[in-house]
Amino acid sequence: xxxxxxxxxxxxxxxxxxxxxxxxxxxxxxxxxxxxxxxxxxxxxxxxxxxxxxxxxxxxxxxxxxxxxxxxxxxxxxxxxxxxxxxxxxxxxxxxxxxxxxxxxxxxxxxxxxxxxxxxxxxxxxxxxxxxxxxxxxxxxxxxxxxxxxxxxxxxxxxxxxxxxxxxxxxxxxxxxxxxxxxxxxxxxxxxxxxxxxxxxxxxxxxxxxxxxxxxxxxxxxxxxxxxxxxxxxxxxxxxxxxxxxxxxxxxxxxxxxxxxxxxxxxxxxxxxxxxxxxxxxxxxxxxxxxxxxxxxxxxxxxxxxxxxxxxxxxxxxxxxxxxxxxxxxxxxxxxxxxxxxxxxxxxxxxxxxxxxxxxxxxxxxxxxxxxxxxxxxxxxxxxxxxxxxxxxxxxxxxxxxxxxxxxxxxxxxxxxxxxxxxxxxxxxxx
Length: 431
Ligand code: ADP
Prior knowledge:
Elements: H1 6-31, H2 33-54, H3 61-72, E1 74-78, E2 99-108, E3 114-123, H4 127-174, H5 188-238, H6 245-273, E4 281-284, H7 285-300, E5 306-310, E6 316-319, H8 321-337, E7 344-351, E8 355-362, H9 396-407, E9 410-416, E10 420-428
Parallel strand pairs: 5-7
Antiparallel strand pairs: 1-3, 2-3, 4-6, 7-8, 8-10, 9-10
Adenosine-5'-diphosphate binds at residues 334-335, 337-338, 362, 364-365, 367, 375, 380-383, 389, 392-398, 421.
């Protein structure tokens, strides 16, 4: 049944519906007709008795009796009349005496006199009617089957056509054609389905585009240091006597870059599969930040960057120190990467009642409000042409976000184009 086309399903359901209707019709028109007719006549007889009882003293009684005879075929006669009356049509010689339903009732007139009346309800034979109805039933059956076919065809066309269209486009989508535009036509459910499919296509195309960008970024990021390492190593092999510290340093720093890139990718996948565990413990956050800032300043001093850590007191928190340091490190490298010629970065620690807020302030290009919601997404890069951003994988902030969310702490960014950004997070602090 599941494999049947919609057209045939509708046809079968309609046919079953017609079948039930016809069966009911047939039962009432043939099997129960005679009984029902008699029941109705009995009812009419009771109504006639009630009417006569009501008007027994009325001067209109004879008029009422006449009406009963002509309209309802109920003949009223004094009870002493033992013979059943005959309808004129059947009264001829050889004519069968019609069946009647008879009931006698006594009525008391206003003067106290009691009269007895017999009511005869004539029963017309229904055999002829039944055969007429049967012929009509055959005709109705034929008409209903034709109507069921026509309705099934029209309905299946109305219902199935938009679905067939959507299905064709969905097949294209499954083959990677994200431009398969789902057209909403027909009825509300199809419109909703096509809207859902359209947004799915948009999301899929975004993911696909991001995947392409990531592969392009990563392969670029992997290729450059690998090429450098290879050429320096080759030089060292060819001229072993001329090995310089710069060559060795380059190999080491490029290897470091490679391993940090690989770590980024591993972190993202671990965070996403939920296999990253937090090792929570109480530690001195201020001291930890101080060390990170000092390490990074040392590394970047030659490039003219100054990173200042502003704090008034030591604050203790319970968190995963390595992860919080990694998040801070990512925020700091972003501040460095996106800073302008000013090259001045401030890390500010602000103590609240039961919390501590850390802000990383840069005076870089800033981020436009429409881009802010997306910067935390994986692989998202605002300005793909930024001189330093070329080396970014677009993963840094997504790692930061996941670390803060794993800890369940508040974080965010305030940024103004042309003025700079403040990336902040807030941890619960100990008194
Ligand atoms: P990326 O590897 O590109 O730096 P991130 O996830 O760290 O990836 O950052 C995502 C995007 O957010 C960046 O491409 C950049 O456009 C923007 N961004 C992040 N930090 C800053 C910042 N301090 N100033 C300006 N833009 C930033």
